[in-house]
Structures are given as structure tokens and as C-alpha cells.
Write a structure and sequence with these properties.
The longest helix is centred in the last third of the chain and has 23 residues, at 379-401. The strands form 6 sheets. The protein has an 11-stranded mixed β-sheet with strand order 1-2-3-5-7-9-11-12-13-15-14, with no helix packed on it. The protein starts with 5 loop residues before the first helix and ends with a helix. Helix 5 (379-401) runs antiparallel to helix 6. With 428 residues, it is α/β, with parallel strands linked by helices. The chain is elongated and about 90 Å long. It has 6 helices and 25 strands. It has helices at residues 6-15, 162-165, 212-216, 247-250, 379-401, 408-427, and strands spanning 22-26, 29-33, 50-54, 62-63, 76-78, 86-87, 100-102, 110-111, 124-126, 134-135, 149-151, 173-175, 197-199, 219-220, 231-234, 240-241, 261-263, 283-290, 294-297, 302-311, 315-319, 332-334, 339-342, 351-359, 362-373. Bound molecules: 2-acetamido-2-deoxy-beta-D-glucopyranose (5 copies). The site of one 2-acetamido-2-deoxy-beta-D-glucopyranose (NAG) has 3 residues, from loops. Residues 285-371 form the Ig-like domain. This is Leucine-rich repeat and fibronectin type-III domain-containing protein 3. Keywords: Cell adhesion, Cell membrane, Cell projection, Disulfide bond, Glycoprotein, Immunoglobulin domain, Leucine-rich repeat, Membrane, Postsynaptic cell membrane, Repeat, Signal, Synapse, Transmembrane, Transmembrane helix.
Length: 428
């Protein structure tokens, strides 16, 4: 009944090569090559000591947890050009030594938190030509400091987990071309000291913000002729809005290509490099409409509006009659387009509100007067509201001070009660 000796198992296993595959045993490195062999699954008979496994051009649809179990020596894994649409959680968990993972030309639609767990030595991650529309921010965490090459090109990505990209401290090449990206946050590349190629060709970018990184190292628009230790930034094929915010890009060392402007109308279709720097202009905001004086009853909701035009689109903030910047609260919502919704007005909001429209070219302000009439029947409950508002902090103070001999647990209980009642009041 006793199991066979382990050494015997190993010896038998070492002999095995999956059907129709080619195996090379250049000890100590095993290479297995199974291309165009009609595989529907990763063969179970793969030697666990394999260093290089190439399974491209097959019909694998799912990567299972057991497929790569115990393959701690695997350095290179190629699964390109299959039909993989599903990766089971932790499918790569044992691949502690893996340097390169090629998953290009498959049918992946999303990358979740647990898909790439365990790949603590990964340097090259190739995910181009899939149908990706989502990448979880935590999914790259295990190799955030080792990754050198990230290829997400030719997918359907609108959003990129930018904060994660910004932490790839060892990354050299980032390929995001041929996606649907509309937005790049400013300064996101500033810590990527080794970045040498950033490809954002053919996306939906109207603008590309300058980055502290771009001012530290020379930036080129094409790789031809660019010196080492420079950054090559490719951005053709985007609907660029050529205003003053893109002047920095226009100042790059050019290598002629087909970049054009999509707007403003007078620059539409023009060749980016042919436009003079002075023609990349912005318009300061101008407030074209605003709400006239409004009279409301206390407790009513009210919407104050300021409409501003400019290039780039201005964003609008509001200053309350008390002189404070109005932020989003449970009672007020300040939209960037210039609408300020006050859901229940109070007497403190009586007075002159000021809207400030700003953009890269300047600022413009206007005033809107709000008259709030007290609601007679509410007089009593208004007093109640006032009591309630100052209530929680009173309780908090008494919990801390008035009974010095109380146990800590008793005090904490009171604080909790105070917190709960505060939340309750906030919500109401
Ligand atoms: C991996 O190793 C464990 C422990 O040695 C073993 O129980 C398991 O069967 C192995 N799995 C595979 C797929 O080889
Ligand atoms: C307030 O919330 C709205 C809608 O969620 C959002 O568009 C706006 O940017 C927020 N304003 C501020 C100042 O955060
Ligand atoms: C601004 O956006 C809000 C919410 O999307 C909308 O209700 C409001 O009418 C808009 N205001 C203007 C001036 O377009
Ligand atoms: C509140 O209501 C009570 C009774 O309904 C009344 O006597 C009192 O004067 C009211 N207080 C105020 C401030 O109106
Ligand atoms: C704290 O002291 C007060 C007055 O000295 C006393 O009434 C109360 O029982 C004491 N509480 C505790 C928890 O010892």
C-alpha cells in the first residue's frame, strides 16, 4: 500500500513530453514547445521543472489553477494567439520565477485583482490584442517594482489604473496605443525614472498634460534619431485639441509624422508640426449667463447657475455669502459646469454668492443674490435643528471631561453613541 518512492516519480516525469510537443532537455533548463498542436487545455503532463513553456497558436480557452501549479522554475511563458477568455484566480500563483508572460491575441476582457497574484519577479507583461475593458488597480501589485515592459495596446480600455502605472518604478516601455483612452492625469509619470518609451497613439485624447518627467529628460516624438536616456512619446492618431495647453508638446523635438489637430475649428485637420507655437491659444473664461436674483422660502431647494465659455472649458466654483468655497455636502452640490444645487436652504445662505469660472487662460467672476425668507411654522423646529447640530460635540466633551472616575470602556461607549447620533443627524 505504501506509495512509490519520490525519486522514481521524478525520474518517470522527467521523461515525459506532452503529446505532439517538442521538448528540449538542456539540463538544467527544460523547454517545452507546443505550437499549433490544437491544444484545448494546458497539457497536464508538463514537467514541473520546465523553464520555458511556449503554447502559442492553440485553442486554449481557460487557464486553471492546476495548469501551472508548482512550476517555480518557469521563466518564460507564452500563451499568445489562443482563445483565452478566462483566467482562474491564482492561476499563476506558483510562478515565483517567471520573467515574461505573453498573453497577447486572446479574448480577455478584464483583469481582476487575483489574476496575476504570485508573479513576484515579472518583468514583461504582454496583453496586447485582447478585448480588455477593465484592469483592476491592484492586479499589478505583485510586480509593481520589477515590471519593465507593459503592453496593453490594441484593447478597448477607456480607463487605465493610472495610480498603479505611476508606481511602476522600474518600467522602461509602456504601450497603451490603440485603445479608447480619453484622459491622462497630470504628473502621473513623474516617478518613472526609467521610462524610455510611452506609446499613446490612436486613442481618444484631446489633450496630453505636461509632466515633470518630461521636463527632466529630453522628450522626442519619434524614436528615430533620439539619443539614449531620452523619452520617446508617441501620440499620433488622437483628436488633439490644439490650444495653449499643448504648446509644450509642440516644442518637442519633432520627427515628421501624421499628427493632426481635431479642434479648434480653425486648426482642424492641420498638421500638428506645421502650426506655429503662437497659434496654440486659449481663451479666458467669460460668464455668459447667470441666475438673476432669487427669492426662496427657508427649507426650499434652489439651483444657482453661472454659464461660462472659454477655451479650454472653464470650471466653475462658488463662494458663499460667508466667503467660503462651497464644497459638496449632503445639502449642496457644486457642479463644474456652473450649477450649484442647494437642497434645503437655510437662513445662513441669504446673501450674495459669487461664481468663479477658471481655465488655463484666466478667471472670471459674477454674483448671484439669494434671498431666503424664514418659514414661520418652522421657527420652533429651526431651534431644534440648532440644538441637534451642536449636540454631538457637547456629548463628546462631557464624555471626556465631566466624570473623571469613569472607566475607559464607559467613555468609549458614550463616544460611540455620540458618533452614531452624529451620522444620524448628517444623514437627515
Ligand atoms: C504540487 O505539489 C504539491 C505538494 O508537493 C502536490 O500535492 C501537488 O499534487 C502538486 N501539483 C501538481 C499539479 O503537480
Ligand atoms: C460635486 O459632485 C458633482 C457630482 O457628483 C461633481 O460633478 C463635482 O465635481 C463635485 N464638486 C466638487 C467641488 O467636488
Ligand atoms: C450642469 O450639470 C447638472 C448635472 O449634470 C445639470 O443638472 C445642470 O443643468 C447643468 N448646468 C448647466 C448650466 O449646463
Ligand atoms: C414653539 O411652540 C410653542 C408651542 O407650540 C410656543 O409656545 C412657542 O412660543 C414656540 N416658540 C417659538 C420660538 O416660536
Ligand atoms: C464617579 O463619581 C461619582 C461622584 O463622585 C459617583 O456618583 C459615581 O458613582 C462614580 N462612578 C464610577 C463609575 O465610579
Amino acid at each position: 500500500k505504501s506509495p512509490p518512492k519520490p525519486s522514481l516519480i521524478t525520474a518517470v516525469k522527467a521523461m515525459m513530453c506532452p503529446k505532439r510537443c517538442m521538448c528540449q532537455n538542456l539540463s538544467p533548463s527544460f523547454t517545452i514547445l507546443c505550437t499549433k498542436t490544437g491544444l484545448l487545455f494546458v497539457p497536464p503532463s508538463i514537467d514541473r521543472r520546465t523553464a520555458e513553456l511556449r503554447l502559442m497558436d492553440n485553442f486554449i480557452t481557460t487557464l486553471r489553477r492546476k495548469d501551472f501549479a508548482n512550476m517555480t522554475n518557469l521563466i518564460h511563458l507564452t500563451l499568445s494567439r489562443n482563445t483565452i477568455s478566462q483566467i482562474m484566480p491564482y492561476a499563476f500563483f506558483d510562478l515565483k520565477g517567471l520573467h515574461a508572460l505573453h498573453l497577447d491575441s486572446n479574448r480577455l476582457t478584464c483583469i481582476n485583482e487575483d489574476h496575476f497574484k504570485g508573479l513576484i519577479n515579472l518583468r514583461h507583461l504582454i496583453l496586447s490584442n485582447n478585448q480588455l475593458n477593465f484592469i483592476s488597480p491592484g492586479s499589478l501589485d505583485d510586480f509593481i517594482e520589477t515590471l519593465e515592459d507593459l503592453d496593453l495596446s490594441y484593447n478597448n480600455l477607456v480607463n487605465i489604473p493610472w495610480d498603479t502605472i505611476g508606481k511602476l518604478s522600474n518600467v522602461n516601455t509602456v504601450s497603451l496605443d490603440h485603445n479608447l483612452i480619453e484622459f491622462v492625469p497630470e504628473g502621473i509619470f513623474s516617478n518613472l525614472h526609467k521610462l524610455a518609451r510611452l506609446d499613446m497613439t490612436s486613442n481618444k485624447l484631446k489633450k496630453i498634460p505636461p509632466d515633470p518627467l518630461f521636463s527632466r529628460i529630453p522628450v522626442y516624438a519619434k524614436s528615430k534619431g533620439s539619443p539614449l536616456s531620452s523619452l520617446v512619446l508617441s501620440f499620433g492618431g488622437n483628436p488633439l485639441h490644439c490650444n495653449c495647453e499643448l504648446v509644450w508638446l509642440r516644442r518637442l523635438t519633432r520627427e515628421d509624422d501624421l499628427e493632426t489637430c481635431a479642434s479648434p475649428p480653425e486648426l482642424m485637420g492641420k498638421y500638428f508640426w506645421s502650426i506655429k507655437e503662437q497659434e496654440f491659444v486659449c481663451e479666458p473664461p467669460m460668464i455668459t449667463h447667470r441666475t438673476p436674483k432669487l427669492v426662496v422660502m427657508e427649507g426650499q431647494s434652489v439651483s444657482l447657475k453661472c454659464k461660462a465659455v472659454g477655451d479650454p472649458d472653464p470650471y466653475v466654483r462658488w463662494i458663499s455669502p460667508e466667503g467660503k468655497l462651497v464644497s459638496n455636502t449632503s445639502r449642496t452640490i457644486s457642479y463644474e459646469n456652473g450649477t450649484l444645487d442647494i437642497l434645503t436652504t437655510t437662513l445662513t445662505e441669504k446673501g450674495t454668492f459669487t461664481c468663479i469660472a477658471s481655465n488655463a487662460a484666466g478667471e472670471s467672476t459674477a454674483s448671484v443674490e439669494l434671498v431666503v425668507n424664514p418659514f414661520p411654522h418652522l421657527a420652533n423646529s429651526t431651534n431644534c435643528d440648532k440644538d441637534a447640530e451642536s449636540g454631538p460635540s457637547d456629548i463628546l466633551i462631557s464624555a471626556k471631561s465631566s466624570f473623571p472616575n469613569e472607566t475607559k470602556a464607559q467613555q468609549e461607549k458614550k463616544v460611540v453613541v455620540a458618533e452614531i447620533s452624529k451620522h444620524f443627524i448628517d444623514r437627515n
